[in-house]
Design brief:
With about 525 residues, this protein is mainly alpha-helical. The protein contains 27 helices and 2 strands. The protein has a two-stranded antiparallel ribbon with strand order 1-2. Belongs to the PPR family. PCMP-H subfamily.
Length: about 525
């Protein structure tokens, strides 16, 4: 297995432009066992008043303590110049070659962004321990220099250094950040054979790896195998479900963990609110909002954005108020809008028929450059123009946008063509959809509807024959309803549930009220 991992890393050409988005890093450095300063507070020390001759004359343990205190202070304050001065003094006293102080210097230089200095210290160390290897790999990973970090992993494995739990966590984070998911899986195989599989830092990094790679099954297996769970690991698994569209599973797991007495932070609540947005269950959303208020975590911007998104999708229906709130907060500089907030507001403009306002917000964000515009933002503009009946303009916008339109955007345009009876643009959208998603039954159904609106029944029959030839089957519609305190899922035409009659009566009641 080790040879396979080394070969895998050695032959991969890793791209280094991928941005890092990882959980809070674990603390990687500690005192060496039985070091003289392990239980002693750091004394005050100033190199400007302590010439090298004075240091030479000091007791060995005292010098160790003072150098360590000085380097600790440099690291905490990011004083790279003082650290370089300390290194010069340590060279004169032969302390710079010690593995322990070499590790401290590496941490300082990496924290200050001095990768070359850190690498130089590392290269000049006559001996390297697992802490120094881990520090350098972590530093390169945080700086986005993934190629060099992976090659350092290769060197470490070849050197015979045994990784500890922090090393494994760091290497998994590296694989996740570099999108080298297969390499991460092979590292996981090494972890399984080590004593560190159950360590919380290792488990959290593996959860993030499998969530980012879209492998929710492996992520759940890792989570279930953790002997102890903390808020980081619980948030990671809930977030993984929500990000991959498993909204019901995310909510179910959250409720299960809550019943076990687990406490959560604002990141967890933001993830659950995202899942509730996908389910569009208003009452559950209100209950979660109340829970957030009681936990005093509603002031976090991530939670506020998720609340706005949840209410906009769960039937709040007051798009004008959302837009007004967004405008006021921008004018008063109360917050800096992020991509999620902008997406929610653009969606509100689209559903509220506020075409010009939505285009204005989008243009402002594009020109200001403060928000990274993703495919979802461009999709919102296509939806906005489509709902306004400006289908030719929407098609032109799609041709000019810097990102390639995905199936969701083409589907939005096709739906608008059906609503506004535009056969010409609808045919273009349908053809592109069938190229992108030839197995999606919904695309064939929408194309049939467009043909039917134009009276082209011969074309409708051709599409249906094509569906039979390709064995494309339309999935039944799915919905959710709350009975008492329980959220139920049911499908169109499904009579297999023992409470089918109660569910149907409740749904009819909701429709009557609406």
């Amino acid at each position: 297995m080790l040879r396979r991992i080394i070969k895998f890393i050695h032959h991969r050409n890793i791209q280094t432009f991928i941005s890092i988005s990882i959980h809070q890093s674990a603390k990687l450095h500690s005192f060496p066992p039985n070091s003289p300063n392990s239980n002693i507070a750091a004394p005050s020390f100033n190199l400007n008043h302590a010439p090298a001759q004075q240091i030479h004359g000091q007791d060995h343990d005292m010098r160790f303590m003072e150098y360590d205190a000085l380097l600790r202070d440099c690291v905490s304050r990011k004083h790279v110049k003082a650290g370089q001065t300390a290194q010069s003094h340590m060279i004169k006293t032969s302390y710079a070659l010690r593995v322990y102080f070499g590790g401290r210097l590496i941490v300082l230089y990496l924290k200050c962004g001095c990768l070359d200095d850190a690498q130089k210290v590392f290269d000049e160390m006559p001996q390297r321990n697992v802490v120094s290897w881990t520090a350098v790999i972590s530093g390169y990973t945080k700086s986005g220099v993934f190629n060099e970090a992976l090659h350092l992993v290769l060197e470490m494995l070849r050197s015979g250094t045994n990784p500890n739990e922090y090393t494994f966590a760091t290497v998994v984070i590296l694989c996740t950040s570099a999108s080298q998911f297969e390499c991460g899986r092979q590292i996981h195989s090494l972890i399984v054979k080590s004593p560190f599989e159950s360590h919380i830092y290792v488990g959290s990094s593996l959860l993030d790896l499998y969530a980012k790679s879209g492998n929710i099954h492996e992520e759940r297996l890792v989570f279930e195998g953790l002997p102890e769970r903390d808020v980081v690991s619980c948030t990671a698994i809930v977030s993984g479900y929500a990000q991959l569209g498993f909204d019901q599973e995310a909510l179910d797991l959250f409720c299960e963990l809550q019943s076990e007495g687990m406490s959560f932070n604002y990141v967890t609540y933001a993830c659950v609110l995202t899942a509730l947005s996908g389910l569009a269950v208003f009452e559950y959303g209100r209950q979660m909002h109340g829970r957030v208020l009681r936990s005093h975590q509603s002031f976090y911007i991530a939670v506020e954005n998720s609340l706005i998104d949840m209410y906009s999708k769960c039937g709040h229906g007051d798009e004008e108020s959302v837009v007004e709130l967004y405008s006021n907060m921008k004018e008063e500089n109360k917050f800096k809008a992020d991509g999620t907030t902008l997406l929610t507001v653009l969606s509100g403009c689209s559903h509220g028929g506020m075409e010009q306002i939505g285009l204005q917000f989008f243009d402002e964000a594009a020109s200001a450059g403060g928000v990274d515009l993703g495919i979802e933002h461009y999709g919102c503009i296509v939806d906005l123009l489509g709902r306004a009946g400006q289908l030719e303009r929407a098609l032109h916008f799609m041709k000019e946008m810097p990102l390639k339109p995905n199936a969701a955007i083409w589907g939005s345009l096709l739906g608008a063509c059906r609503a506004h009876r535009d056969f010409q643009v609808g045919k273009v959208a349908a053809d592109r959809l069938l190229e992108i998603e030839p197995e999606n039954a919904g695309n064939y159904v929408m194309l049939c509807n467009v043909y039917a609106l134009d009276g082209r029944w011969h074309e409708v029959r051709k599409v249906r024959r094509l569906m039979k030839e390709k064995a494309v089957v339309k999935e039944p519609g799915k919905s959710w309803i709350t009975l008492g305190q329980t959220l139920h899922t049911f499908y169109a035409g499904d009579r297999s549930r023992p409470d089918s009659e109660e569910v149907l009566l409740c749904k009819v009641g909701e429709m009557s009220i609406g």
